[in-house]
Design a protein that fits this description.
7 helices; mainly alpha; 66% helix; 134 residues
Length: 134
Amino acid sequence: MVIRRFRRVMAGRVRPIPQPGARARLVLPPLPARLAEQLKDYPLHVEQLQLALQGVAMARGTRLPRIEMALWVLEDRVGRFLAEARRELDAARCSGNAERFAAAQKMEQVMFTLRLRHQWLRDEVFMGYFRDLR
């Protein structure tokens, strides 16, 4: 017993990776339906949002409600997507390629409309998922 405790406090000891417990979720959290519908042409963005929401779902307990954390994560990611779309639009404008410019303009418009938070708050499935987490 003493040796076991001594090994725990030894410098340089590598702790074992904790095994997922009952809190582990195999299904990714749902996105708000309107958000998923608008991002149907951008599957990489959908995956990034779901992985970010999975981080919120798996986070240890905090004082903040998980639904607020989830909304903040969505706002942050959508803001990043908008910034990326604007950079792509500038690059397409400088390149002179009409097809690339049209695609970048469409992407920037979609990402700009995603910034409207009220469309996320109306989704009962999304709200219920994060409201039920403790």
